[in-house]
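Lecture 7 notes: from sequence to structure.

We start with a single chain of 219 residues. Read the sequence below before looking at the structure.
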Amino acid sequence: MWHSVWNDAAILNRVSALLAVLALGVFGTIAIKWLAARPVFAIQRVVVTGEMRNADPAQIAAAVQHGLRGTFFTMDLAAARDALQKVPWVRQVSVRRQWPGRLGIAVEEHQPLARWNDTALVNTQGEVFDAEYGEELPDFYGPDGTAGEVTAHYREFSAPLRTLQLGIDALSRSARGAWDVKLDDGMTIALGREQVGERWARWMQVREGYRDRIAQGGQ
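Now the structure, written as tokens:
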């Protein structure tokens, strides 16, 4: 069998052509990788966009510099993005190549909404993050994983308070699901665990009906 194959010119020609194509593909890949790594394709400019009020530009610059490994073609964009997302206050970041020789970085900051369990912050999406912040914020308390639920109730409870020029100073959810609302006038409303929204609506009706007496410190 092998003797007949080696003597078959048509088969040998096809095998030779296949080997030539494979060799060309291997050498072509090597050549492309070699060319892509040349200094001529180095990143020449980094453009950072996005409104940044709390993130430290120096930390972002350091993360960018640390993440810039390789050329325009060989840079690991995922590694650069991961390095940037470790910077405090950075919520999301996208990294894109922009020909020729430019890297575009779009940064989205966390927007602080409240403090979380006295150890972290909650953003406007109900996500917990770690950062330093010196301005006044309401306090949220709850078990791990409930920040989104607390944020949703905060928006629900806050909306009708605006007409009374009141705000929420602290909002607490216990491990058993009971809710306490402390207003910025010092009053605390215990809502319990069930029909929380309905109870809050009834409280608002009482508050409206007895506004003057409450303002005077009456029972």
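Confidence is low (pLDDT under 50) at residues 23-41. Keep this in mind for problem set 3.
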